[in-house]
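Running co-folding for iron/sulfur cluster.
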Amino acid sequence: MTTARRRHPPRRQPTAFFVSLGCPKNRIDTEVMLGLAEAAGFGLARAAETADVIVVNTCGFIGDAKRESIDTVLALARHKRTGRCRRLVVTGCLPQRYAEELARALPEVDHFLGAGDFPRIADALRGALPRALIAATPEYLYDHLSPRRLSQQPFTAYVKVSEGCDRRCAFCIIPRLRGPQRSRTPGSLEAEVAALCAGGVREVSLVAQDLTDYGSDLPGRPRLGALVRRLARVPGLRWLRLHYAYPTEIEDDLLEAIAGEPAVCKYLDVPLQHVDDAVLKAMRRGQGGAAARALVARLRRAIPGLTLRTTMLVGHPGETEAAFGRLRDFVREAELDHLGVFTFSREEGTAAATLRGRVPARVAEARRRALMRLQRPIARARRRALLGREIEVLVEGPSEESDLLLRGRHAGQAPEIDGCVYLALPEGLPAAPRPGDFVRTRVTQVSDYDLVAEVLGPAK
Ligand code: SF4
């Protein structure tokens, strides 16, 4: 007598939900984890409620970022009680920095992976790892063979040219979290950009902790200028933009490449951090205020139509009212296109944590607001110079402002940080542009950080 074999329902594909916090470099790590999870047979859940495993790729750089990371972990941990979640995994800079403290403080977390250990994410998703896997010094560096699943819009992507940093800026904990500088080879970078463009990417943003130190650790010391030329000629690439250039390492050859290569955006992000000699010395930035001023002039001479972004840090120990005054004067004179201002965060393990001359947090915050107030009309004036001009815009999609407008960015606006262009579609336009299209436009209005432009037609 044969008994009918009991049919087992097909095993449901396990799913994972990822949250990426912090900087674009961390986002790339998350995208590699997405690729590894898929390769290991996990589906990617669109919501935490429907995920079997939740992964939070954290930031551990400064106070606010640490708080956001912990709050996010605690908020998502509730899905282990109410949802399908069976496993909570925390990766990135926070466990790299506070492994033991987190292991004690967050019993709801099943696995901690360090900033260089995320290639083992598939094992963590399966629960096949010890609770904490955190190499003392991260060594991993993804390359063109790493499975990567883009998480932004399909026409734009960040590419990390190197990981880690060999500098020792007094306020910065990153070298301890990310390890020593390690550069990708030009061949691997070209292969990755080519694959991205073959997949529909048109805009690539090059990132690193210290972009301009690219290649210093590789045989033959390939230079960033040569790399930029090589990547700029990848078929299908329309815009290549550079971020995190260190002010003392900008070579003429790099500037010639930016100015000379059509696909390279006339855009540069150079974190200056400050312009006061004594503060820059305390920050261990390796240059003084005069050099910062000279650099701005040199960049604008070398790259006509340059869009210049920088970052300033206020409230660093030793920043007197007079020193801040010099920074304010610089911002007034330099007329920067994009300015980010952060307040000093005293981070244990950095040289600045033990410096005297502390600035009260409320004073630092007041200085941050004062600089942003000063920058607002300057930013508007920089945009007003574009009024009536014809500019090329990358369409991102519908605008949140109005159904009648699309949203896009011009080459002087990096993703996520630099404002946008609202696009008006005139009557009779043959077809509405789609996300990822490049269009010719004429600027009709400006605000402090955004533009409004009329679409004239497809870009050539
Ligand atoms: S260059 Fe300085 S601020 Fe930037 S990651 Fe390195 S140590 Fe930190």
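Result summary
The chain has three domains: 15-133, 156-384, 390-458.
The CA atoms of residues 36 and 147 lie 6 Å apart.
Job closed.
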